[in-house]
Amino acid sequence: MDFQDCVLTCEKQFHCGICKRGFSRNSDLTRHMRIHTSEKPFKCDICEQGFSQSGNLTRHMKIHTGEKPFKCDVCKRSFSRNGDLTRHMRIHTTHIKIHIGENPFKCDICDRRFSRNHDLTRHMRIHTGEKPFKCDICEQGFSQSGNLITHMKIHTGEKPFKCDVCKLSFSRNGDLTRHMKIHTTHIKIHIAENPFKCDICDRLFSRNHDLTRHMRIHTGEKSFKCDIYKQGFITNGDITTPMSIHTDE
Fold it and tell me: Residues of the chain whose pLDDT is less than 70?
């Protein structure tokens, strides 16, 4: 066997027994097999998260150390991973294209222009009505993959968006945003109608007089005294009842 034949036949002599993919080195095959076995031998000492490759663990550790070696030359923002910097740079490139009018991808129907062909492709579905992303459960179609992902939460029951006020959960962030208006409106009503607030328990009152009376609960002050037994009471109403006992006598 000459050198050329060896290159063709020996270049990928290590093959995966599951998917038949070939590798030139046994170490590459070993690493590849973790995809099938889900083995994650590289563990984070801090949070115990596992990784299939040592490089992924190295990048992960930057989250804990706060190291951000990848810096944007435009806005000086830093990132822990190069991939995050690459995605971030698209903000600047797209923004610049908008300012210089560089939108080479044009819709033939409505003449709208786009800076990326991908955006034009997605836009065209508005005109064509194409919905290539199908739900495997109910077969409903969607024009964008993100809409399908949101839709699937209806079937799975997943509700990752939780209200911090009443703990009610929602499958979509938009539903949570609309729900929060209930609390903000409700709070505004209470603040408008009850402007006098207790600094200790945050209870609201419509009149300053009611707040003054309420504060005696916290201070223990008993301004109203029984003339017969000298017993103290927080409110005038409290003293009225025992006084009736004395008058009946």
Answer: 1-10, 94-102, 185-192, 222-249
**Residue carrying the six token digits 């076995």:** 37
Q: Name, in order, each residue with C-beta under 8 angstroms of 163's C-beta and a sequence gap of 6 or more.
A: 169, 170, 176, 179, 180, 183
Alpha carbon distance 12, 26 (integer Å): 9
The pLDDT score that the predictor gives to residue 94 is: 66
Contact indicator for 100, 92 with CB cutoff of 8 Å? no
pLDDT at position 202: 83
**What is the rounded CA–CA span in Å between residue 207 and residue 193?**
9
Residues 6+ positions from 95 with CB-CB distance below 8 Å: none
Set out the domains of the chain in order of their start, with CATH numbers: 12-52 (3.30.160.60), 70-156 (3.30.160.60), 196-241 (3.30.160.60)
What pTM did the predictor assign?
A: 0.34
| Residue 159: C-alpha distances to residues 148, 164, 181 (Å) | 15, 14, 19
Cβ atoms of 206 and 213 closer than 8 Å: no
